[in-house]
Protein backbone atom coordinates (compact mmCIF):
# COMPACT_ATOMS: atom_id res chain seq x y z
CA UNK A 1 0.00 0.00 0.00
CA UNK A 2 2.81 2.34 0.92
CA UNK A 3 4.49 1.54 -2.35
CA UNK A 4 1.29 2.29 -4.30
CA UNK A 5 0.94 5.60 -2.50
CA UNK A 6 4.57 6.47 -3.25
CA UNK A 7 4.00 5.61 -6.91
CA UNK A 8 0.90 7.79 -7.06
CA UNK A 9 2.76 10.71 -5.51
CA UNK A 10 5.65 10.26 -7.93
CA UNK A 11 3.25 10.17 -10.87
CA UNK A 12 1.48 13.28 -9.61
CA UNK A 13 4.75 15.13 -9.14
CA UNK A 14 5.94 14.05 -12.57
CA UNK A 15 2.67 15.15 -14.16
CA UNK A 16 2.84 18.51 -12.44
CA UNK A 17 6.43 18.99 -13.54
CA UNK A 18 5.61 18.13 -17.12
CA UNK A 19 2.62 20.48 -17.16
CA UNK A 20 4.76 23.28 -15.73
CA UNK A 21 7.41 22.65 -18.34
CA UNK A 22 4.72 22.65 -21.00
CA UNK A 23 3.43 26.00 -19.78
CA UNK A 24 6.98 27.34 -19.86
CA UNK A 25 7.37 26.04 -23.39
CA UNK A 26 4.19 27.84 -24.44
CA UNK A 27 5.50 31.06 -22.91
CA UNK A 28 8.72 30.66 -24.86
CA UNK A 29 6.86 29.54 -27.97
CA UNK A 30 8.65 29.79 -31.24
CA UNK A 31 7.11 32.01 -33.86
CA UNK A 32 5.31 30.67 -36.88
CA UNK A 33 7.39 30.53 -40.00
CA UNK A 34 7.31 32.70 -43.08
CA UNK A 35 7.43 31.43 -46.62
CA UNK A 36 10.41 32.56 -48.65
CA UNK A 37 10.01 34.81 -51.74
CA UNK A 38 11.26 31.93 -53.87
CA UNK A 39 8.33 29.79 -52.83
CA UNK A 40 6.05 32.16 -54.76
CA UNK A 41 7.98 31.75 -58.00
CA UNK A 42 5.33 29.46 -59.44
CA UNK A 43 2.90 32.39 -59.61
CA UNK A 44 3.65 33.67 -63.08
CA UNK A 45 1.57 36.85 -62.97
CA UNK A 46 3.81 39.45 -61.23
CA UNK A 47 0.84 41.34 -59.80
CA UNK A 48 -0.66 38.19 -58.32
CA UNK A 49 2.77 37.16 -57.03
CA UNK A 50 3.17 40.60 -55.48
CA UNK A 51 -0.18 40.28 -53.73
CA UNK A 52 0.77 36.83 -52.51
CA UNK A 53 4.07 38.13 -51.18
CA UNK A 54 2.36 40.96 -49.32
CA UNK A 55 -0.24 38.58 -47.94
CA UNK A 56 2.59 36.50 -46.52
CA UNK A 57 4.25 39.63 -45.14
CA UNK A 58 0.87 40.51 -43.67
CA UNK A 59 1.34 37.73 -41.13
CA UNK A 60 3.94 40.03 -39.63
CA UNK A 61 2.18 43.36 -40.13
CA UNK A 62 -1.03 42.15 -38.52
CA UNK A 63 0.73 40.34 -35.71
CA UNK A 64 0.07 41.68 -32.20
CA UNK A 65 3.77 42.51 -31.76
CA UNK A 66 3.34 45.05 -34.56
CA UNK A 67 -0.30 46.17 -34.32
CA UNK A 68 -0.11 46.83 -30.60
CA UNK A 69 2.19 49.77 -31.34
CA UNK A 70 0.25 50.86 -34.42
CA UNK A 71 -3.04 51.39 -32.54
CA UNK A 72 -6.06 53.20 -33.86
CA UNK A 73 -6.37 55.26 -30.70
CA UNK A 74 -3.94 57.10 -28.49
CA UNK A 75 -3.19 54.18 -26.16
CA UNK A 76 -0.89 51.33 -27.10
CA UNK A 77 -2.13 47.81 -26.71
CA UNK A 78 -0.65 44.78 -25.02
CA UNK A 79 -0.64 41.04 -25.27
CA UNK A 80 -1.77 38.74 -28.02
CA UNK A 81 -5.36 39.82 -27.37
CA UNK A 82 -4.49 43.50 -27.84
CA UNK A 83 -5.83 44.74 -24.55
CA UNK A 84 -5.34 48.41 -23.71
CA UNK A 85 -1.97 49.24 -22.18
CA UNK A 86 -1.79 49.14 -18.42
CA UNK A 87 -1.00 51.44 -16.76
CA UNK A 88 -3.09 53.87 -18.77
CA UNK A 89 -0.75 55.84 -20.98
CA UNK A 90 -1.26 58.22 -23.87
CA UNK A 91 0.80 58.67 -27.00
CA UNK A 92 1.35 62.37 -26.28
CA UNK A 93 2.32 64.79 -28.99
CA UNK A 94 5.35 62.87 -30.24
CA UNK A 95 4.36 59.25 -29.67
CA UNK A 96 6.71 58.98 -26.71
CA UNK A 97 4.05 59.55 -24.05
CA UNK A 98 2.77 62.44 -22.01
CA UNK A 99 5.20 64.72 -20.22
CA UNK A 100 4.58 63.03 -16.89
CA UNK A 101 4.65 59.48 -18.25
CA UNK A 102 7.22 59.15 -20.99
CA UNK A 103 7.73 55.69 -22.44
CA UNK A 104 11.36 55.33 -21.27
CA UNK A 105 10.36 55.84 -17.65
CA UNK A 106 9.37 52.18 -17.70
CA UNK A 107 10.65 50.90 -21.05
CA UNK A 108 14.40 50.71 -20.76
CA UNK A 109 17.14 50.05 -23.30
CA UNK A 110 16.26 46.36 -23.48
CA UNK A 111 13.66 43.92 -22.22
CA UNK A 112 13.72 43.72 -18.43
CA UNK A 113 12.40 40.28 -17.61
CA UNK A 114 12.10 40.65 -13.80
CA UNK A 115 9.62 43.46 -14.39
CA UNK A 116 8.17 41.84 -17.54
CA UNK A 117 8.65 45.15 -19.31
CA UNK A 118 9.76 45.16 -22.94
CA UNK A 119 12.43 47.62 -23.91
CA UNK A 120 14.36 49.29 -26.69
CA UNK A 121 16.23 52.62 -26.81
CA UNK A 122 13.62 54.09 -29.16
CA UNK A 123 10.48 52.65 -27.59
CA UNK A 124 7.49 54.66 -28.78
CA UNK A 125 4.21 54.45 -30.65
CA UNK A 126 3.89 54.65 -34.39
CA UNK A 127 2.34 57.99 -35.37
CA UNK A 128 -1.43 58.22 -35.40
CA UNK A 129 -1.56 58.29 -39.21
CA UNK A 130 0.26 54.96 -39.26
CA UNK A 131 -2.45 53.15 -37.31
CA UNK A 132 -3.12 49.62 -38.55
CA UNK A 133 -5.46 48.41 -35.87
CA UNK A 134 -8.82 47.33 -37.25
CA UNK A 135 -7.78 47.61 -40.88
CA UNK A 136 -7.79 44.94 -43.51
CA UNK A 137 -4.52 43.82 -45.02
CA UNK A 138 -5.49 45.56 -48.24
CA UNK A 139 -6.05 48.83 -46.39
CA UNK A 140 -2.73 48.46 -44.60
CA UNK A 141 -1.03 47.83 -47.92
CA UNK A 142 -2.39 51.00 -49.48
CA UNK A 143 -1.54 52.93 -46.33
CA UNK A 144 1.98 51.61 -46.07
CA UNK A 145 2.77 52.88 -49.56
CA UNK A 146 1.36 56.35 -48.91
CA UNK A 147 4.17 58.71 -47.80
CA UNK A 148 1.61 60.78 -45.93
CA UNK A 149 0.71 57.77 -43.84
CA UNK A 150 3.97 55.84 -43.67
CA UNK A 151 6.31 58.37 -42.13
CA UNK A 152 7.25 59.85 -45.51
CA UNK A 153 9.03 56.65 -46.51
CA UNK A 154 9.89 55.48 -50.00
CA UNK A 155 9.39 51.84 -50.88
CA UNK A 156 13.12 51.34 -50.37
CA UNK A 157 12.78 52.91 -46.92
CA UNK A 158 9.97 50.47 -46.17
CA UNK A 159 12.17 47.51 -46.98
CA UNK A 160 14.78 48.84 -44.58
CA UNK A 161 12.19 49.67 -41.93
CA UNK A 162 10.73 46.19 -41.98
CA UNK A 163 13.96 44.30 -42.55
CA UNK A 164 16.54 46.20 -40.52
CA UNK A 165 15.01 48.74 -38.10
CA UNK A 166 15.96 47.55 -34.63
CA UNK A 167 12.73 48.71 -33.00
CA UNK A 168 10.78 46.69 -35.56
CA UNK A 169 13.26 43.90 -34.86
CA UNK A 170 12.10 43.80 -31.26
CA UNK A 171 9.01 41.99 -32.56
CA UNK A 172 11.18 38.90 -33.06
CA UNK A 173 12.81 39.16 -29.64
CA UNK A 174 9.90 40.31 -27.51
CA UNK A 175 10.93 38.64 -24.28
CA UNK A 176 9.43 35.98 -22.09
CA UNK A 177 5.69 35.42 -22.40
CA UNK A 178 5.27 37.27 -25.67
CA UNK A 179 4.80 35.43 -28.94
CA UNK A 180 7.37 36.59 -31.50
CA UNK A 181 6.32 37.80 -34.92
CA UNK A 182 6.40 35.05 -37.57
CA UNK A 183 9.68 34.04 -39.16
CA UNK A 184 12.66 36.32 -38.76
CA UNK A 185 13.16 39.99 -39.45
CA UNK A 186 15.50 39.08 -42.29
CA UNK A 187 12.82 36.90 -43.86
CA UNK A 188 10.25 39.67 -43.48
CA UNK A 189 12.66 42.09 -45.12
CA UNK A 190 13.18 39.68 -48.00
CA UNK A 191 9.43 39.42 -48.50
CA UNK A 192 9.09 43.20 -48.44
CA UNK A 193 11.86 43.53 -51.01
CA UNK A 194 10.31 40.90 -53.27
CA UNK A 195 6.93 42.59 -52.92
CA UNK A 196 8.40 45.93 -54.01
CA UNK A 197 10.28 44.35 -56.91
CA UNK A 198 7.09 42.75 -58.19
CA UNK A 199 5.24 46.06 -58.26
CA UNK A 200 4.10 46.45 -54.64
CA UNK A 201 0.60 45.31 -55.49
CA UNK A 202 -2.03 45.23 -52.79
CA UNK A 203 -4.64 42.63 -51.94
CA UNK A 204 -8.28 43.69 -52.24
CA UNK B 1 26.72 43.33 -12.94
CA UNK B 2 26.73 47.11 -13.02
CA UNK B 3 28.69 49.43 -10.77
CA UNK B 4 25.83 51.66 -9.69
CA UNK B 5 26.44 55.18 -8.46
CA UNK B 6 23.39 57.20 -7.51
CA UNK B 7 22.42 60.18 -5.41
CA UNK B 8 19.40 59.65 -3.20
CA UNK B 9 17.94 62.42 -1.10
CA UNK B 10 21.16 64.38 -1.50
CA UNK B 11 23.40 61.53 -0.42
CA UNK B 12 25.79 59.80 -2.81
CA UNK B 13 25.73 56.01 -2.89
CA UNK B 14 28.14 53.70 -4.67
CA UNK B 15 29.66 52.62 -6.80
CA UNK B 16 27.91 49.41 -5.75
CA UNK B 17 27.88 46.23 -7.80
CA UNK B 18 24.29 45.32 -8.58
CA UNK B 19 22.90 42.48 -10.64
CA UNK B 20 21.42 43.57 -13.92
CA UNK B 21 18.17 41.81 -13.06
CA UNK B 22 17.79 43.66 -9.76
CA UNK B 23 14.82 46.01 -9.72
CA UNK B 24 15.23 49.53 -8.40
CA UNK B 25 12.56 48.78 -5.83
CA UNK B 26 14.55 45.89 -4.42
CA UNK B 27 17.69 47.99 -4.48
CA UNK B 28 16.07 50.72 -2.42
CA UNK B 29 14.32 48.43 0.00
CA UNK B 30 16.66 45.48 0.37
CA UNK B 31 20.08 46.97 -0.29
CA UNK B 32 19.69 50.43 1.20
CA UNK B 33 16.90 49.81 3.70
CA UNK B 34 14.84 52.67 2.27
CA UNK B 35 11.55 50.90 2.83
CA UNK B 36 9.42 54.00 2.52
CA UNK B 37 9.21 53.22 -1.16
CA UNK B 38 6.59 50.50 -1.35
CA UNK B 39 6.16 47.51 -3.59
CA UNK B 40 2.54 47.39 -4.69
CA UNK B 41 1.31 45.85 -7.90
CA UNK B 42 4.74 45.09 -9.32
CA UNK B 43 3.52 46.16 -12.73
CA UNK B 44 3.89 49.96 -12.68
CA UNK B 45 0.15 50.35 -12.37
CA UNK B 46 -0.44 51.56 -8.82
CA UNK B 47 2.61 53.84 -8.56
CA UNK B 48 3.02 53.25 -4.84
CA UNK B 49 6.65 52.59 -5.74
CA UNK B 50 7.18 55.89 -7.55
CA UNK B 51 10.18 58.04 -6.73
CA UNK B 52 11.22 61.48 -7.93
CA UNK B 53 13.93 61.62 -10.57
CA UNK B 54 15.70 64.97 -10.83
CA UNK B 55 16.93 66.06 -14.23
CA UNK B 56 20.08 68.12 -14.66
CA UNK B 57 18.00 71.01 -16.01
CA UNK B 58 16.15 71.39 -12.72
CA UNK B 59 12.98 69.63 -13.82
CA UNK B 60 11.78 66.46 -12.17
CA UNK B 61 9.43 63.60 -12.83
CA UNK B 62 8.18 60.58 -11.00
CA UNK B 63 8.74 57.05 -12.14
CA UNK B 64 7.98 53.56 -10.87
CA UNK B 65 10.75 51.46 -9.39
CA UNK B 66 9.13 48.05 -9.47
CA UNK B 67 9.57 47.27 -13.15
CA UNK B 68 12.85 48.95 -13.96
CA UNK B 69 16.39 47.77 -13.31
CA UNK B 70 18.42 49.48 -10.62
CA UNK B 71 21.23 49.73 -13.15
CA UNK B 72 19.14 52.10 -15.25
CA UNK B 73 19.42 54.65 -12.44
CA UNK B 74 23.19 54.83 -12.69
CA UNK B 75 24.34 58.43 -12.46
CA UNK B 76 20.88 59.73 -11.61
CA UNK B 77 19.66 61.84 -8.74
CA UNK B 78 16.44 60.76 -7.09
CA UNK B 79 14.31 61.56 -4.09
CA UNK B 80 12.31 59.12 -2.04
CA UNK B 81 9.72 59.61 0.67
CA UNK B 82 12.50 59.58 3.25
CA UNK B 83 13.83 62.82 1.80
CA UNK B 84 10.80 65.05 2.32
CA UNK B 85 11.09 65.87 6.01
CA UNK B 86 13.96 68.19 6.90
CA UNK B 87 15.59 68.17 10.32
CA UNK B 88 12.72 66.18 11.70
CA UNK B 89 10.13 68.63 10.39
CA UNK B 90 7.48 67.33 8.05
CA UNK B 91 7.02 69.12 4.75
CA UNK B 92 3.91 71.18 4.09
CA UNK B 93 2.54 68.38 1.96
CA UNK B 94 3.13 65.78 4.65
CA UNK B 95 1.39 67.97 7.22
CA UNK B 96 -1.51 68.54 4.87
CA UNK B 97 -1.86 64.81 4.20
CA UNK B 98 -2.12 64.21 7.93
CA UNK B 99 -4.52 67.10 8.53
CA UNK B 100 -6.81 65.86 5.79
CA UNK B 101 -6.64 62.22 6.87
CA UNK B 102 -5.56 61.57 3.32
CA UNK B 103 -4.36 58.07 4.03
CA UNK B 104 -5.23 55.12 6.22
CA UNK B 105 -2.89 52.23 5.53
CA UNK B 106 -0.36 54.58 3.96
CA UNK B 107 0.78 52.15 1.34
CA UNK B 108 0.15 54.54 -1.53
CA UNK B 109 1.22 57.66 0.35
CA UNK B 110 4.86 57.76 -0.72
CA UNK B 111 3.81 57.74 -4.34
CA UNK B 112 1.18 60.43 -3.85
CA UNK B 113 3.63 62.52 -1.85
CA UNK B 114 6.33 62.34 -4.50
CA UNK B 115 3.87 63.12 -7.27
CA UNK B 116 2.44 66.06 -5.34
CA UNK B 117 5.93 67.41 -4.64
CA UNK B 118 6.76 67.33 -8.33
CA UNK B 119 3.50 69.14 -9.02
CA UNK B 120 4.36 71.88 -6.51
CA UNK B 121 7.76 72.38 -8.08
CA UNK B 122 6.26 72.46 -11.54
CA UNK B 123 3.69 75.04 -10.48
CA UNK B 124 6.37 77.13 -8.78
CA UNK B 125 8.19 77.25 -12.10
CA UNK B 126 5.07 77.65 -14.19
CA UNK B 127 2.00 78.76 -12.23
CA UNK B 128 -1.50 78.06 -13.48
CA UNK B 129 -4.70 80.04 -13.17
CA UNK B 130 -6.92 79.25 -10.20
CA UNK B 131 -9.59 78.12 -12.64
CA UNK B 132 -7.26 75.41 -13.92
CA UNK B 133 -6.07 74.23 -10.53
CA UNK B 134 -8.53 71.41 -9.88
CA UNK B 135 -7.88 69.89 -13.28
CA UNK B 136 -4.14 70.32 -12.84
CA UNK B 137 -4.14 68.49 -9.52
CA UNK B 138 -6.40 65.74 -10.83
CA UNK B 139 -4.19 65.16 -13.85
CA UNK B 140 -1.04 65.16 -11.74
CA UNK B 141 -2.36 62.56 -9.30
CA UNK B 142 -3.98 60.50 -12.01
CA UNK B 143 -2.58 57.00 -12.12
CA UNK B 144 -1.84 56.71 -8.41
CA UNK B 145 -4.09 54.13 -6.86
CA UNK B 146 -5.43 54.25 -3.31
CA UNK B 147 -7.66 51.52 -1.91
CA UNK B 148 -8.50 53.05 1.47
CA UNK B 149 -9.62 56.63 1.58
CA UNK B 150 -10.33 57.50 -1.96
CA UNK B 151 -8.62 60.25 -3.74
CA UNK B 152 -10.54 63.34 -2.65
CA UNK B 153 -8.58 63.84 0.55
CA UNK B 154 -5.26 63.73 -1.24
CA UNK B 155 -6.63 66.17 -3.79
CA UNK B 156 -7.88 68.53 -1.08
CA UNK B 157 -4.60 68.38 0.80
CA UNK B 158 -2.59 69.30 -2.26
CA UNK B 159 -5.04 72.07 -3.09
CA UNK B 160 -4.72 73.49 0.45
CA UNK B 161 -0.94 73.63 0.21
CA UNK B 162 -1.16 75.44 -3.12
CA UNK B 163 -3.82 77.88 -1.96
CA UNK B 164 -1.82 78.63 1.19
CA UNK B 165 0.79 80.24 -1.03
CA UNK B 166 -1.08 81.40 -4.13
CA UNK B 167 1.57 83.90 -5.14
CA UNK B 168 3.96 81.03 -5.61
CA UNK B 169 1.83 78.49 -7.37
CA UNK B 170 -0.92 80.42 -9.13
CA UNK B 171 -1.11 83.16 -11.68
CA UNK B 172 -1.96 86.25 -9.69
CA UNK B 173 -3.87 89.10 -11.28
CA UNK B 174 -3.00 92.78 -10.95
CA UNK B 175 -5.33 93.11 -8.00
CA UNK B 176 -3.32 90.48 -6.17
CA UNK B 177 -6.03 87.88 -6.29
CA UNK B 178 -5.42 84.40 -7.58
CA UNK B 179 -7.99 83.67 -10.25
Give the overall form of chain B. Answer: globular
Biggest sheet descriptor of chain A: 2 strands, antiparallel
- Note the beta-strand portion of chain B: 5-15%
Tell me the strand order in the biggest sheet of chain B: 2-1-5-3-4
Would you state the CATH class of the largest domain in chain B?
Alpha Beta
Number of strands of chain B: 5
Distance between the termini of chain A: 69 Å
Mean pLDDT of chain A: 89
Q: Name the strands of the widest sheet of chain A in spatial order.
A: 1-2
CATH topology of the largest domain in chain B: Ubiquitin-like (UB roll)
Q: What is the average per-residue confidence, as pLDDT of chain B, rounded to a whole number?
A: 94
CATH superfamily of the largest domain in chain B: Beta-grasp domain
Question: What can be said about the biggest beta sheet of chain B?
Answer: 5 strands, mixed
Structural domains of chain B: how many: 2
Helix content of chain A: 40-55%
Proportion of residues in β-strands of chain A? under 5%
Walk me through this protein's architecture:
The complex is a heterodimer of chains A (204) and B (179). Chain A is mainly α. Chain A has 2 domains: 1-30; 34-197, no CATH class. Helices cover 42% and strands 4% of the residues of chain A. In chain A, the strands form 2 sheets. Chain A has a two-stranded antiparallel sheet. Chain A is globular and about 70 Å long. The N and C termini of chain A lie far apart (69 Å). Residues 21-29 of chain A have low confidence and may be disordered. Chain B is an alpha+beta fold. Chain B has 2 domains: 2-83, Beta-grasp domain (Ubiquitin-like (UB roll), Roll); 92-169, DNA polymerase, domain 1, CATH 1.10.150. Chain B is 32% helix and 15% strand. Chain B has 6 helices and 5 strands, in the order E-E-H-E-E-E-H-H-H-H-H. The mean pLDDT of chain B is 94. At the A-B interface, strand 4 of A face strand 4 of B.
Amino acid sequence: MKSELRTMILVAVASLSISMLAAYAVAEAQSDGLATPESFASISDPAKRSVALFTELGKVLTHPRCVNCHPAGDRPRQGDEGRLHQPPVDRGTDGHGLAAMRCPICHQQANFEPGRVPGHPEWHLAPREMAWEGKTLGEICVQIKDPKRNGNRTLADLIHHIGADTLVGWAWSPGFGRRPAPGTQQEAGALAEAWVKTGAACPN
Amino acid sequence: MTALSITINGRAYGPMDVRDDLTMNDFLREFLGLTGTKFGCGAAQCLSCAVIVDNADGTSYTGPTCVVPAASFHGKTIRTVEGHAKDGMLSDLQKAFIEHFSFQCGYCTAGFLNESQVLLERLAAKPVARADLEKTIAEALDGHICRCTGYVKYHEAVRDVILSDPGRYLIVTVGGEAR
